[in-house]
Design goal:
The protein is of the alpha/beta class. It is built from twelve helices and 19 strands. It folds into four domains: about 120 residues, 3-Layer(aba) Sandwich (Rossmann fold); about 120 residues, Transcription Regulator spoIIAA (2-Layer Sandwich), CATH 3.30.750; about 120 residues, Transcription Regulator spoIIAA; about 50 residues, Nucleic acid-binding proteins (OB fold (Dihydrolipoamide Acetyltransferase, E2P)). The chain is globular and about 65 Å long. The chain starts with a strand and ends with a strand.
Length: about 425
């Protein structure tokens, strides 16, 4: 029996795809070990969204090569798509974001001929690579990839080039897959994609119709959208948010910059006025909803004044959490050719300041739930405590050991960042 170690970097889409790969390998007689073990095969599902992602991808590939020089080394995913001429000696199979589902076939070919395989393609991907998962061992929430690719071409982003065009999973297959996961005991399902809210654009379907059908699945207690663009939160999507409490009280809506000047330079598809009014519209429907976001700091030509405007904007909106990213130049993007690039020291300091603001906003949001009863999905039990998340993504720590993968009601009695302290 051949052994495999899998390392997943990057987004929830990669997590889903890696889980599919693992399931396929198990079905075909492979034994899955820890990535740090001595294995016959190492698979690194890479990321290239930032320079740091590239560095991590290279590091994991090299670690696998050094761990066992005789192993078959498989590098797949976005870093590979952006670097098919990868200069790392020792890789045996290179797969971009096409044909991950053929991993068993590719490994069989390599073990037969022991010749390097480069599964390259020249055009932007146009077909959805179908995958299907019925269980996520060890996880309490299941991810389902319903969409791939992006057509937005934000000026800083390499993802449309490495993930291809917007394309969607078959409508009926999405419902079938999630129904199966719920029947297998999963109470929460997360819809994932590169541009999740664009689901259906290529198959004459509406994302809102999909949501409306999914929340009706018997036994599903929580449906979460991993991320959605503010421009896709249309009247029909908000109607589902209003009418069904299965869709959780949390949305992750990327802002990216808090000034119209930088939003325009980023080629984002909205201005601040549109964004703020949409958030107000959402909060009329769900007053206590958690809205988290992404912000890039240190974009070319971002002055001190524009950065301070971003701080003012995020405070005004009152996000529950901000994921802060220092601008990372990506070869081939429009912003890589812009003037006015900033020193890393400036980006680092602005990141630090915005992270402080994020913590302040997180605490403000957590305090709203002091003394209130909340429902927590138990995800981990450790040292006499149970840990989990509410639907609005509060991280809760509870004294006592409660059943894994069960939703329990507790009262929030204290805040010990990053946890709300709950008592049964």
């Amino acid at each position: 029996m051949r052994t495999v170690g899998v390392m997943t970097l990057g987004c929830k889409v990669n997590t889903y795809e890696s889980e599919f790969v693992i399931n396929e390998l198990k079905k075909n007689g492979y034994q899955i070990l820890d990535f740090n073990d001595i294995c016959d095969v190492y698979i690194i599902n890479t990321c290239t969204v930032t320079n740091n992602s590239d560095s991590k991808s290279r590091k994991m590939i090299r670690q696998a090569i050094h761990r066992n020089a005789d192993a078959c080394i498989v590098a797949m995913g976005c870093f590979v798509s952006h670097n098919f001429n990868c200069d790392i000696d020792g890789i045996d199979i290179l797969i971009g974001n096409k044909d991950k589902s053929k991993i068993v076939e590719l490994l069989n070919e390599w073990f037969q001929y022991k010749k390097m395989i480069v599964d390259e393609y020249s055009d932007r991907l146009k077909e959805f690579e179908d995958m299907y998962i019925t269980e996520f061992p060890g996880r309490t929430r299941a991810f389902v990839k319903i969409q791939d690719g992006c057509d937005n071409f934000c000026s800083y982003c390499i993802i449309p080039f490495v993930r291809g065009k917007c394309r969607s999973k078959d409508y009926d297959k999405v419902i079938e897959e999630i129904t199966s996961l719920v029947q297998n005991g999963y109470k929460e399902v997360v819809l994932t994609g590169i541009h999740t809210g664009s689901y259906g654009i290529d198959i004459n379907k509406k994302f809102s119709d999909l949501l409306e059908n999914l929340v009706k699945i018997n036994g599903l207690e929580r449906l979460r959208i991993s991320s959605i663009e503010v421009t896709e939160l249309n009247e029909d999507v908000l109607k589902v948010l209003k009418n069904s409490n299965i869709l959780v009280d949390h949305l992750h809506i990327p802002l990216q910059a808090g000034s119209n000047e930088i939003l325009k330079a980023m080629n984002r598809k909205y201005d601040l006025d549109f964004f703020i009014k949409k958030i107000e519209e959402i909060r009329k429907i769900r007053p206590n909803i958690s809205i988290s976001t992404d912000v890039i700091v240190g974009f070319p030509q971002e002055t001190d004044e524009l950065f301070l405007k971003t701080i003012d904007t995020v405070k005004k909106i009152g996000f529950s959490k901000i994921h802060v990213f220092p601008y990372s130049e990506r070869r081939g993007t429009l912003s890589s050719r812009m003037d006015g690039k900033l020193d890393n020291s400036i980006k680092k300091e602005r990141s630090r300041k915005l992270i402080e603001v994020s913590k302040e906003l997180e605490m403000n949001y957590m305090k709203k739930f002091m003394g209130k009863d909340v429902d927590v999905l138990i995800e981990e039990i450790k040292d006499g405590f149970s840990y989990g998340h509410t639907g609005n993504y509060l991280s809760v720590k509870i004294e006592g050991e409660y059943p894994h993968n069960k939703i329990i009601s507790v009262k929030i009695e204290d805040i010990q960042y990053p946890y709300c302290i709950g008592k049964k």
